[in-house]
Amino acid sequence: MISPGRGPVPAAKTVTAPDQGSLPVLVARGLTKRYGHVTALDGTDLTLRRDEVLAVIGDNGAGKSTLIKCLSGAVVPDEGTIEVDGRRVAFRGPLDARAAGIETVYQHLAIAPARDIAANLYLGRELRRKGFAGWGLRLLDRKAMRANTRELLDSLGLLTIQSLDQAAETLSGGQRQGIAVARAAAFGSRVVIMDEPTAALGVKESRKVLDLILEIKNRGIPVILISHDMPHVFEVADRIHIQRLGRRIACVPTADITMPEAVALMTGASQPGPGHTQD
Amino acid sequence: MTAPADQLAPAASGVREVRSVRLPGGRREPLALFMARVALPLLLLVLLVVFSLLRPATFFTLDNLGTVLTLQAVLGVLALGLLLPLIVGELDLSVAANLGLGVILVTGLTSQQRLPLVVAIVVAAVVCTLVGVVNGLLVTKVGINSFIVTIGMSTVIGGLVSAYTQGNVFYDGIPPALVTIGQGRLLGVPLPVVYAVVLAIVVWYVLSHTPVGRYLYAIGGSREAARLSGVPVRGLTLAAFAGAGLLAGVAGIVQAGILGSGNPTVGPPLLLPAYAAAFLGATAIQPGVFNVWGTIIAVVTIQVGTTGLALVGAPFWIEPVFTGLALILAVATARYLRGEAL
Fold first, then answer.
1. Closest-approach residue (CA) in chain B for A127
2. A90, B17, B264, B295: least CB-packed within 10 angstroms?
3. Do B222 and A113 touch (CB under 8 A)?
């Protein structure tokens, strides 16, 4: 459950009721999205289980980004259904997805360049002071936001950043990505989606982000990872969802497939076999 | 390895030593950034000292101070309104014409239509706000560039003001209460200065201490990032234009009181000074960011400079030259210092 007004909670959350143990967290069925004559998504399914990192791979134009935008509320699909914890949802915007506990780290970082780190972390859900100052005068509680930010970055091992007062634009690409990931980790209570989180990063910085992905998973929050980088995918993913021509053509445990096989399926060089799709 | 650690350390850390200053509250920041913050306030201080020494009998007197501040209070209120669209990354070139509309409405409705002053003030404020709302709707819903929308709006307002006034100045039948609004004093402080200070505090509070302020800055930084973070981008952009319209209207009402007449030519010449104040203000206090106190200091600095120059007997053409040079120099200096700091 998301509780507005509360700070990021660094400790793992227990949102799983006993009877939900086997139920997938997120299920999408038959998602379709057309832009004029172009069909970006052609009836895609997606299933995200509890406690897993699900990688979504596919060639350019396979519909990965559109699929993720449907799940994060940035795009409204023309057809199809989305269920979160077994309940049907209809996202009309990013706020709806957030309210359902889905946080997204976008490929083109959703970071406000001139604002400091705490302001970015809390953008869109600022904490306000208690009492009249908060609800009457709308007074921000900067102290609490800064303290929570420090605690969160510390718990994620991101406190190499010299000062929390630095503007986001003065951070390196990796540090900025770290802030975006930290934000998702702090507020994503059900699902964290990451769209090409390592695309613009160097080797060391990518390492850090991969560690963060595993850290989020260890906290009991499943992650959907969209990536072009096969070694990264094979390192952190539990299952791999292969998207081609706007559809899911395969979804297999990482252990059951090799890198060349995955690439062959992705590019259409080989066709999926009977054991290749499972929810 | 036998090299002493203190010789290796600087090279190994690879971090350039930056001279820094400690701020109240214990935070440190680079010296260059701090200098950028205070450059404009320091210039103001220097101007005050220099002119006081040069003309001790006239410049540094309460009377002169009151005159200096009253002259710029209207410009200050106008610039405060202008900050809002600038912060969300839009231009509003209609604020000065809108101020002129406010002047004409409040004087015309009372002197020509014989409406009570309170009604005239409310109508003027509402109409000026609606001008901002229309600007905002054309920008956010129709998707027209704000530069074009507001140039068009400015021209339309100018035409409508001409139609209403027929080119005349409203002198007769201006209610004395309106003149009191513009020329009265509170505890010796001219009322327009009081309005400007109160409004500056309100705008500063909203921009710096509420979520809405953060959203406005976030929209200006990156519209898409703001949208994806759940900020209502369209609504707040519209609100920024509406706020600019409202403050232009308030500035117009005060200006009408100061002048005690309705002159159709009074608004438009304030456009460039308002922009100069906002841009000059963005070099101070929070360098690189449109901010309230920087803008207010900029307004006062320009006026102190031009009044002082007039008192020491500089020729009339010094004033625009001073204003223009101050703007360019301040922006260049701030840019240089900020570049050093980053």
1. B211
2. B17
3. yes
